[in-house]
Specification:
Layout: E1 2-6, E2 16-20, H1 29-59, H2 61-72, H3 91-107, H4 117-136, H5 141-165, H6 173-197, H7 202-208, H8 211-223, H9 239-246, H10 267-298, H11 311-330, H12 341-361, H13 369-397, H14 403-410, H15 412-433
Antiparallel strand pairs: 1-2
Helix pairs in contact: 1-5, 1-6, 1-8, 3-5, 3-15, 4-5, 4-7, 4-8, 5-14, 6-11, 6-13, 10-12, 10-13, 10-14, 10-15, 11-13, 12-13
């Protein structure tokens, strides 16, 4: 047993000392109840808000490209194609939505700890709002893609920030964060589908979604109860920063009442951690490669011409049903955990291969639309399960002093897979749309 100082509400006036052992249940009831539930709720909302703009931009990809193409071109170069195609693949929106995230995730784990959390979150809020505004008022494809880039910066910086932040709290906030990101998928795609179906233009629908950056601000700055020793506004200051990191800050809601900052880890130790995580990162990368190759490379080409729904409406439904599957599986880690992520990657690659063959030989429209819907839902279930179980496994297995870095660096794997899929989806789109 040892005596440690516990912060029960984020205020120094409420600090008190309690003897605790290695059992987190020894923490005071105040921490386990009110503040803990507030933090769980806050992380769910943070996940929702962080991924919302990213999801909406992908759901609107077909509309963005079709609207802008109709405004700037007097003819469609793909009219002679046996596929109903935009001039530009929706993968172009995917790349604009993911490449800035990839750059951030590849580099941030090596410097992000120098930037206080409040500055990072503030930038996420501003760029999310900018994304909705720029795309809404855009008059050409280049400006629309710039707005999508803002959404990517917000989502990428937010993901590495909030996943790193989970290291300072109980590990169950990871499941709430993951469920929230799944909620962003279903609520983002469903809200866009619902608003456009109700008669609003895509541009006005995006303006309504400016409520999301405001909710992000409330969730982080008001609802969340951060520990007093979390680096929020103050930048590290030379040697004193090193001394602070060596003091093992005692944090409000982390396991055993404390965690270590990852800022003191040496470069060699960071590389060692990365290599130990490859058993999870590589399968997750493959899952997301196959998943987004389907979503942005093949969805547009899976078209049922003789039904009441237009091509754009079918595309929106594909995106919504995919996100529904993601939401269910990202919220399932309390019910079922999966350690062998490679099984999920094999199944996802199987679905991608089947749909690619179906698009190539045009036999998918001979299937029923509900059959395609079920395949898409299953695809979403696999992707969400891979994500939540990867980060849950890392959170459980990582050492306390390595957890913040491990959670931050692991999130590059899904982004890398998505980026590869976007790069390959564009020539695949051009190939099929060039067939007559």
């Amino acid at each position: 047993m040892e005596r440690r100082r516990i912060n029960t509400g984020g205020s120094s006036d409420s600090d008190w000392e309690e003897e605790i052992g290695d059992d987190p249940s020894a923490l005071p009831p105040q921490t386990q109840d009110r503040s803990h539930w507030r933090n769980l709720s806050a992380f769910w909302l943070l996940g929702l808000c962080n991924n919302f703009a990213y999801v909406v931009m992908l759901s609107a990809a077909h509309d963005i490209l079709r609207t802008e193409t109709n405004q700037t071109s007097t003819h469609n170069v793909t009219n002679s194609s046996k596929y109903d195609c935009n001039q530009i693949s929706t993968a172009a929106v995917l790349l604009a939505d993911i490449l800035p995230t990839l750059v951030i995730k590849f580099t941030a784990p090596f410097y992000i700890h120098q930037i206080p959390y409040n500055y990072r979150v503030s930038l996420c809020i501003l760029t999310a709002a900018a994304s909705f505004l720029v795309v809404s008022f855009s008059t050409n494809i280049a400006l629309s893609l710039l707005g999508v880039v803002f959404a990517s910066v917000s989502s990428g910086l937010g993901e590495i920030t909030f996943l790193s932040l989970t290291a300072f709290f109980y590990s169950d906030v990871v499941s709430c964060w993951s469920s929230g990101t799944g909620g962003a998928g279903i609520l983002g795609s469903l809200s866009y589908l619902g608003l456009t179906a109700a008669g609003l233009s895509p541009q006005n629908s995006l303006l309504i979604m400016l409520l999301i950056p405001a909710l992000l601000l409330i969730s982080y700055f008001i609802l969340l109860l951060p520990p007093s020793s979390l680096p929020r506004w103050k930048f590290p200051d030379g040697p004193s920063a090193t001394r602070m990191s060596d003091q093992r800050p005692l944090l409000q809601d982390s396991p055993l009442g404390l965690t270590e900052s990852g800022s003191h880890l040496t470069l060699s130790r960071k590389w060692k951690i990365i290599k130990s995580l490859l058993k999870y990162m590589l399968p997750l990368c493959i899952v997301y490669f196959a998943e987004y190759f389907i979503n942005q490379g093949l969805f547009e080409l899976i078209y049922f011409p003789n039904i009441k729904m237009s091509h754009s409406e079918q595309y929106r439904w594909y995106q919504m049903l995919y996100q529904a599957g993601v939401f269910v599986s990202r919220s399932s880690v309390r019910c079922i955990t999966i350690r062998h992520i490679w099984v999920l990657s094999c199944l996802q690659c199987g679905i991608a291969t089947f749909l690619l063959v179906g698009v190539s030989y045009l036999f998918l429209p001979s299937l029923t639309l509900p059959g395609i819907f079920l395949i898409i839902i299953f695809e979403g279930l696999l992707g969400g399960a891979a994500y939540v179980n990867t980060f849950n496994n890392i959170a459980v297995e990582s050492k306390p002093e390595e957890k913040e870095f491990a959670m931050g660096v692991a999130c590059v794997s899904d982004t890398f897979g998505i980026s590869l899929s976007g790069a390959i989806a564009i020539p695949v789109h051009n190939y099929f749309c060039g067939l007559s």
